[in-house]
Design goal:
The protein is α/β, with parallel strands linked by helices. The chain folds into two domains: about 170 residues, 3-Layer(aba) Sandwich (Rossmann fold); about 170 residues, L-2-Hydroxyisocaproate Dehydrogenase, Chain A, domain 2, CATH 3.90.110. It contains eleven helices and eleven strands. The protein is globular, with a radius of gyration of 19 Å. Homodimer. Keywords: Mitochondrion, NAD, Oxidoreductase, Transit peptide, Tricarboxylic acid cycle.
Length: about 350
């Protein structure tokens, strides 16, 4: 499910009996419920659309504090497999979550001009903590896909909430860093003059600024770009969110591309749950590949969530330097999340 995702979903959704390239007839795929928390927001609405198009989803549960019935009614008219139900208000969170296999969390306030991801912390951290308490209670075995920023802190917050509830499973909690991969692929393809659909670029570290480290030395197809171009591509990938915020001139942040990236990762989780072999994506997870407790790298997905956290592979000198530079900031963000969860 790469750049052809939308075409593939539209094609698959047109005939309930058609066999998809994921190995299932869309009418016979396992029953899978996906819940989206924050479904009426800027990311939530296009993400709801994309998940409605996914033939692996049989039940789509949309939740937000306001506006959800309209989004649910709108999306429900699309002639694809999944049944759609919308839930509004904190009192209905449990109904939205019950029986969910995958929970996607784009809830929170968006970035505005001049605002860093860290500025979002106090608001979004509280939202995430409340939602994760609900997950622990109503669907403790679900795969949790965290989109709410700052991901470097919200994933540790979620982990602490689940630990206190006695439901934490490190294999089932993911920070969605797929947008960094999407951007790295797009920017690399433009400079390398190759077909973007064939490009793969691992992105490691975290999901904010300098903590984002694309490994262009491992990009395929390999184009042997000059060092100054690699430096510029790395910087643009790290600043991709700011680029969109500034381009929207105070009227939004990266919502459409984030929804696309979120749909890619959720699809990978569903394929893993359904037993499709060799599903690998980058994600911010509990990890031992570095001395940090959480780190983004390639992970193999399966029926239990994370089946294997893959190593970093061979790094260029530039990437080794970037790895050491990102560690202090990422460590601080992780600790900030843990501290918030334990003090509030």
């Amino acid at each position: 499910m790469r750049s052809s995702m939308l075409r593939s979903l539209l094609r698959n959704s047109s005939d309930a009996s058609r066999v998809t390239r994921r190995g299932f007839a869309s009418g016979s795929a396992p029953e899978r419920k996906v819940a989206i928390l924050g479904a009426a927001g800027g990311i939530g609405q296009p993400l709801s659309l994309l998940m409605k198009l996914n033939p692996l989803v049989s039940h789509l549960s949309l939740f937000d504090i306001a506006g959800t019935p309209g989004v649910a009614a709108d999306v429900s008219h699309i002639n694809t497999r999944s049944e759609v139900v919308g839930f509004m208000g904190d009192e209905n969170l449990g109904k939205a979550l019950e029986g969910a296999d995958v929970v996607i969390i784009p809830a929170g306030v968006p970035r505005k001009p001049g605002m860093t991801r860290d500025d979002l912390f106090n608001i979004n951290a509280g939202i995430v903590k409340s939602l994760c308490a609900g997950i622990a209670k109503y669907c403790p075995n679900a795969l949790v896909n965290m989109i709410s920023n700052p991901v470097n802190s919200t994933v540790p917050i979620a982990a602490e909430v689940f630990k206190k509830a006695g439901t934490y499973d490190e294999k089932r909690l993911f920070g969605v860093t797929t947008l960094d991969v999407v951007r790295a692929k797009t920017f690399y393809a433009g400079k390398a003059n190759v077909n973007v659909a064939e490009v793969n670029v691992p992105v490691i570290g975290g999901h904010a600024g300098v903590t984002i480290l694309p490994l262009f030395s491992q990009a395929t197809p390999q184009a042997n770009l000059p060092h100054d171009v690699i430096v510029a591509l790395t910087k643009r990938t790290q600043d991709g969110g700011t680029e969109v915020v500034e381009a929207k001139a105070g009227k939004g942040s990266a919502t459409l591309s984030m929804a696309y990236a979120g749909a890619i990762f959720a699809d990978a989780c569903l394929k893993g749950l359904n037993g499709v072999p060799d599903v690998v994506e980058c994600s911010f997870v509990q990890s031992t590949v570095t001395e940090l407790p959480f780190f983004a790298s390639k992970v193999r997905l399966g029926k239990n969530g994370v089946e294997e956290v893959l190593g970093l592979g061979s790094l260029s000198d530039f990437e080794k330097e970037g790895l050491e530079k990102l560690k202090p900031e990422l460590k601080s963000s992780i600790e900030k999340g843990i501290q918030f969860a334990n003090q509030n």
